[in-house]
Amino acid sequence: MPCQNVFTNTNKKLKKQEIINKNKIVNQIFRNGKKIENNLLKVAYLETTSLKKSLFQVNQVNQVNQVNQVNQVNQVKIAFFVSKKTIRKSYQRNRIKRLMRMSYQLNKKIIPFKIKKIYYIIFMYFKKTIHNFYELKKGFENIIKQMFFVS
To answer: What single string gives the DSSP state of each residue in 5-66?
Structure first.
């Protein structure tokens, strides 16, 4: 009997709209954002109340639905960091980042999308040893619950 794959229900890649790609935003998150720590992860995040205005005019009902879908995708933007000082080998850092991305994709369902804020989140791995996928997944669950459900 073949073993069941955990990754079958998720998309293979994160969308471009979900990734933080500007240094200016990263610096602002570290300066002004809130920080949460776990036994595996450190998280810095910033809440903003302004939603991005869409590029299309909203005149018809199906265009309104497209605008709502675009806003829901853009409500959480993320980045993953693994320090070169803690994990020296690049293949190990890349593996940790892959595992972090997959853990995030599996736990993305927990995040409430009806909020009227945009969250910019940076996940940082700070342990010197590589932990397995299930420990990372548990860490992500705890962090996301602390961020969105505990005030």
So the answer is: PGGGGS-SS--GGGB---HHHHHHHHHH-EEEE-SSEEEEEEEE-PPPPPSS---SHHHHHH
